[in-house]
Structures are given as structure tokens and as C-alpha cells.
Amino acid sequence: MGPALCLVSAACFGAMAIFGKLAYDAGVSAGTLLLVRFTLAAVLLGVVLLARPGLRRAGPDRSAATGRPAMTRGRVLATAIGLGAIGYATQASLFFSALELMDASLLALILYTYPVLVTVGAVLLGRDRLTPRRGAALVAASGGTLLVLLGAGGVSFRPFGAVLAFAAALTYTIYILVADTIVHRLSPVVLSALVMAGAAGSLGGRAAVTGGVDLGFAARGWFWLSCIAVVCTVMAMLAFFAGLTRTGPSTAAILSTFEPVVTAALATLILGETLTPAQLVGGALVLSSVAVLQLRPAGSRIPPPPPGRRSRAADRSAATSS
């Protein structure tokens, strides 16, 4: 069941860009989509915690073993809320702004450079070391990303959209590295609920300052918003956690590379998008490099997954994309 749950999680996260496009077609704005998504997700996770009190308990704190400094309970809670209010809200805003300018499949491939960025960040912070295999993977991922960008032949490709997509990947990288400092100190579901609540509060404040939320979209827009909140946020996160406990972080991370493949496949089937041969080769290089980076020898340190989206690379831990 473990691998199956991880694949279900990746498929749920992979559908987010598709549901986002369909919500846009129904007249939903990016700001409304984000606020409704995180608010619904926070409420649903709160209900889950009320119904299952056992999910509030954190596992054994391995922070000392991983070299993490001691933190007070208040600082841990403030960091968790800040991850949502600043990190995840910013990342999601960039993601859905890019989605307005480019194809969902191309966006997914650019966003999925973040596991490589996480590896570079971990090396620079002294949390990991760069082996020849990881170096080769970084070269492959960089070349693959270049092919994806240079091979863009669709009319929906815009350079500014690519910049926003890469900014989302960079923001998500920082989010993961910060989340890595508190992920062992709270229950995954509690951590995810705090991240979602923080994001909802931040986006709600922004909406109040900028003139409120536009709810004058077609009724079908609520269906797609519910799909994003329930399927691509709550279900995706809970399935990942359940799979993670059965398979371990390395296997879960490798299986999470299925996500952009799902996005590209659904974009072709539902939205009629196409990828050029060069983009397909580039995407394959990016995905293979991520898998190589996650295939560590037994006993080597694997950073614990962060809250929400998936990692898409050992990260889709507590919050979720896009």
C-alpha cells in the first residue's frame, strides 16, 4: 500500500495545474483561487484533527540527531505559521500567476527544478555533500531545463511566465529548507494545518487591502476550487504522509517524481496542450536527475519531507503548488 499511496499523492498534486486552468476558464481569479484553496484546506484539516485526536501527536523528535538547534514551542509554532503566511503563500501566488501565462505541462517541468535547488542549498548550508553522482544529476537537470525553455513552441509560452515559474521553484526551495528545521517537532497534520492557516490569513489580509475577493464567477468554478482544496491539497498531503510511513522518505521522494508526468499527461488529454520533442527530452532529463538525486546509499542522510505539496521530492510533506 505504501508505494500506491505515494503515487496517489503525486497524481493528486499533478492535477492541480489542470484544475487551476479549468477554474480560470470559469472566471475564477488567481487571488480568489488561492484564498479559497487555503481556507478550505485549513478548515478541512482542522476537522480531521478534531475527528482524529491521535493525529495531533508528533513522533519522536530526531532534531538533535540531525544537528538541529533547540527551539522553544512558541518559536516552532511561529515558524510553522510563517511558512504558510510568507513562504507557501508567495510560492502559490507565483505558481498560479505563471499558470495564467503558460501551459500547465511546461509550468510543471520548470517548477520541478526545485529538488535540484534544494540539493544545492543543502550543500551550501552544510546539511549534505555534493558527490560525483549528484554533480552529474545537476548537469542533467540544468541541460533539461534549458531544452524545455528553448524547445517551447506553444503559443502560450511567455518568458515572463517562465521567470515566475522559476521564482516559484526558488521560493519553494527556501520553504523546504526552513521547514526542515521544524518538521520533526510537530505532528505532520498539525504542521500542515498551521501552514494552511498561515497562508489563508496572509492571503485574506492581502485581499482586504486590495479590495476584497471577487466571487462573481460561474458556478462550476466552485467545483474546481473544491477539487483543488480537497484533492490537490488535503487528500494529496494525507496520502503522502500515509505512504511515507510505509515506504520511508527515499522511496516516497522517488515516487513523487510521478507528479509532473501526471500534469503533462492530463494537460494533453484534457487541455489539448502539446510538448515539443525537445521539451520531452528536457523533461525526461529533469525527472531522471531528480530520481538520481534521491537514490542515496543506505545510511546517508535524507532531509525529512516538509509540510504540504508534495514535495514533490520528499517535500510534499505538509503543504502543497503549486
Automatic annotation (TrEMBL):
Keyword rRNA-binding carried by entry: no
Keyword field contains Cell membrane: yes
Lipid bilayer topology: Multi-pass membrane protein
SUPFAM superfamilies documented for this protein: Multidrug resistance efflux transporter EmrE (SSF103481)
TM segment ranges: 33-55, 76-98, 104-125, 137-154, 160-178, 190-209, 221-244
Localisation per UniProt entry: Cell membrane
Residues of the EamA domain: 2-149, 160-293
Pfam families the record matches: EamA (PF00892)
InterPro entries named among the record's database cross-references: Diverse_Substrate_Transporter, EamA_dom, EmrE-like
Domain of life (superkingdom): Bacteria
Keywords, in A-Z order: Cell membrane, Membrane, Transmembrane, Transmembrane helix
Stretch list, region Disordered: 298-322
Family membership noted in the UniProt record: Belongs to the EamA transporter family.
Protein name (record): DMT family transporter
Species the sequence originates in: Micromonospora tarensis
